[in-house]
Predict the structure.
Amino acid sequence: MPRIALVTYRPGPDMPVDRDLPLLAEELRRTGADADVLAWDDPDTDWAAFDLVVVRSTWDYSWRRDEFLEWAARCADVTRLANPVDVLRWSTDKRYLGELARHGVPTVPTSYVALGDVPELPADGPFVIKPTSGAGARYAARYTQDERDVALRQVARMHAEGLTAMVQPYVEGIDESGERAVLFYGGRFLHAIRKGAVLTAGVAYDERKVAHPSLEPWQPTAAELAVAEQALAAVPGGPDRLLYARVDLVDGADGRPCVMELELVEPNLFLGAAHPASAPVVAEAIAKAAGA
């Protein structure tokens, strides 16, 4: 009977709880596995005691990226970690969007503002500022051309906290067609969801946002699946190393899907919220990876 750790975090009063965890742990136990739900920063856990450690909902990692990656490296030294630690390192820095673009993957146009650099903001249209290491729209905001001074102050604030900033045009198609998240597990398409725009006009970068507004199940188009698979094919080492993946898509200026984000660390699976029938599929893929 394989021992499997589903890794989460310790949610605070203003942080969400992963409501999929009890469902997924129960499904794993039905496969015959021994499944434990544990916080990644629990100092008393012996990670070597597990056959497989699966990163599930470490939703505080972007505040503690270096510490999280150090934990992942230690864990990978004593057992199998999914996803692999080099994938976690690559995916926790959104400068990977530039790498995807260089591989020909359609992506939201992005520029990066390193510490000490002065950003070049778009000359027209709304735009977005956010950190290269962030989750749940943390420190992300949407601006108009009349708010350029406010946007520059946000960049200065992020730089003061040691965060590299990224600048993107606001993809206005999201207001009509929403954002689609295409999920894969065990190397296969699992399901998809669509949600509304997370960044709304006039909301400050340091205000908490609703991460998944107007969430609904979605049947991805052939074009969306093709772009998602193209993005995964560009991951260093190839997609076969990934136990799980989520590709977030929006419609670009040309109306075609493009990658907004590639989530290979701790993607919300939307099991209870939209796709409860997928829980056994995820559990079977995890059990198979653990050698069950």
Summary: Residues 65-78 form the longest helix (14 residues).
